């Protein structure tokens, strides 16, 4: 009697870990979308990693040239891949993130270090958070993101306003968790305690620079938090 051949499962090829203290499982490798230049390239790269079990896809309102275009490419590429292989690209299996702070303006601005921002575009104010998440979800063609990051710390906006803004986005169903990117350690502590004192939702993850050439943030600055 011939044995039935076992179907290949991409999850068997990947290690999954819990995201911080949450119940969310993410692949230990992820795909960033900063270099996406077309829908075709996005489809090729997403498909290349998904077949090996990668389920973590990292976006930002800033990414692409012009700003915001990478989210558009990711969103349209994902839709086509879901139509082609619905089981492989089930939304419940994917962890999709985006980041807010560096607003993309009117969507036609070149992604350059000397670009001119609108008066409220570069911010974590309640105004930018509410407008930014709506525009990001439109570009991504999604109803929600799994994790919404504060792309940088906004030193001008009060911390309570920042934490309350992310909390309200989560409570509205547009994101499931929020986190930070490149925040100093003492500001992570401040955000956590402001959330706890005011019965708001604290950040659950930090995304620092970490590679063989730059280990300072994770191994030095964040070490006291781990201890």
What this model shows, in words?
This protein has seven helices and seven strands. With 227 residues, it is α/β, with parallel strands linked by helices. The radius of gyration is 18 Å and the shape is globular. The protein starts with 15 loop residues before the first strand and ends with a helix.
The gist of it:
With about 230 residues, this protein is α/β, with parallel strands linked by helices. It is built from seven helices and seven strands; from the N terminus they run E-E-E-H-E-H-E-H-E-H-E-H-H-H.
Q: Sketch the topology as an H/E string, one letter per element.
A: EEEHEHEHEHEHHH
**Average of per-residue pLDDT values:** 95
- Helical run tally: 7
Which band does the percent of strand residues land in?
Answer: 5-15%
The side-by-side strand order for the widest beta sheet comes to 3-4-5-6-7
What structural class is derived from the secondary structure elements? alpha/beta
The helical percent reads: 25-40%
Distance between the termini: 58 Å
Largest sheet: 5 strands, parallel
Unreliable stretches covering 5 or more consecutive residues? none
Global Rg: 18 Å
Give the tally of β-strands.
Answer: 7
| Molecular shape | globular
């Amino acid at each position: 009697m011939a044995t039935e051949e076992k179907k290949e499962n991409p999850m068997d090829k990947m290690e999954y870990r819990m995201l911080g203290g949450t119940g969310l499982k993410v692949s230990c490798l992820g795909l960033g979308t900063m270099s996406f230049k077309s829908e075709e390239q996005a489809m090729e790269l997403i498909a290349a990693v998904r077949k090996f079990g990668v389920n973590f896809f990292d976006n930002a309102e800033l990414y692409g040239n012009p700003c915001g275009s990478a989210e558009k490419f990711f969103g349209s590429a994902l839709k086509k891949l879901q139509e082609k292989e619905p089981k492989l690209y089930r939304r419940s299996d994917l962890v999709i993130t985006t980041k807010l702070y560096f607003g993309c303006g009117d969507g036609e601005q070149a992604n350059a270090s000397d670009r001119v921002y609108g008066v409220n575009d570069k911010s974590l104010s309640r105004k930018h958070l509410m407008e930014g998440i709506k525009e990001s979800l439109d570009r991504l063609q999604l109803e929600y993101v799994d994790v919404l990051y504060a792309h940088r710390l906004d030193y001008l906006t009060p911390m309570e306003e920042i934490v309350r803004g992310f909390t309200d986005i989560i409570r509205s169903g547009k994101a499931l968790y929020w986190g930070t990117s490149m925040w100093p350690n003492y500001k992570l502590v401040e955000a956590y305690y402001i959330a706890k004192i005011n019965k708001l939702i604290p950040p659950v993850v930090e995304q620092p620079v970490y590679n063989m050439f730059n280990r300072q943030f994770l191994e030095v600055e964040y070490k006291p938090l781990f201890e």
